[in-house]
Amino acid sequence: MEESATTGTPLDNDRAQPRHKLVLLKGSLLAIVLVLGYFMWQCASGMRAGARLSDDGVRRFHSQLDSEAYSDIVRDSDEAFQNSESRDELIQFLAGVHSKLGLSRGFTRANIMVNAGTYGTFIKATYQSTFDQGNAIEVLTWRRAGAGLKLVRYDVNSKAFLTR
What is the per-residue pLDDT across 104-142, written as a single tens digit (0 to 9) for each? Predict the structure, then answer.
């Protein structure tokens, strides 16, 4: 009887080890899922906030473009935009865009990319925009500045540039 008692004890220990490993594995997997879920939630909320800010920025940009407040656009923009050309060339470019396209009639966001890095948070958004003289594809790159955005780059493409 003593033998069976001593041989029975190691068998119970052997059964406890796989259960213990299984509990650790399940706990580790649960922790990984929770951490990944949290990061995905953070990314999604960042994308929503970036999209909202970008849409507000485009609305403001179009309003300034429509009212021919080109110097305000340049003044309110990021240093990178201001340094991309001389102030006069930037104003001339914006005036040319406005003269070819006319007043803004609306826009739809087609794509957005948010990139947070050591140089700041950048939002690059592509819009399909409607103007008096035709449609345009606008790509605006913004830098997060406090609670708002500053324009870093503006690219626009439209058939109206070819016909007028």
Answer: 999 999 999 988 888 888 999 999 999 999 999 999 999
User: CB-based contacts of 116: which residues, under 8 Å, 6+ apart?
Assistant: 46, 122
Query: Where in the chain are the domains?
Result: 2-163
* pTM given for the model: 0.73
| Residue with token string 């009639």 | 105
Cβ neighbors of 40 (< 8 A, separation 6 or more) are: none
Compute CA distances 146 → 114, 115, 153, whole Å: 16, 16, 18
Please report, in angstroms and rounded to a whole number, the separation of the first and last CA atoms in the chain: 104
Decide: 152 and 144 in contact? Cβ < 8 Å: no
Q: If you ran DSSP here, which 8-state letter would residue 103 be given?
A: S
Hey, how many other C-beta atoms are within 10 angstroms of the C-beta on 128?
Answer: 14
Looking at domain 2-163, its CATH class is alpha beta
The two beta strands, 120-131 and 148-157, are: unpaired
User: What's 140's DSSP letter?
Assistant: E
pLDDT in tens, 32-57: 777 676 566 655 555 677 788 999 99
Phi/psi at 156 (5° precision): -140, 140
Q: What one-letter code names the amino acid at 34?
A: L
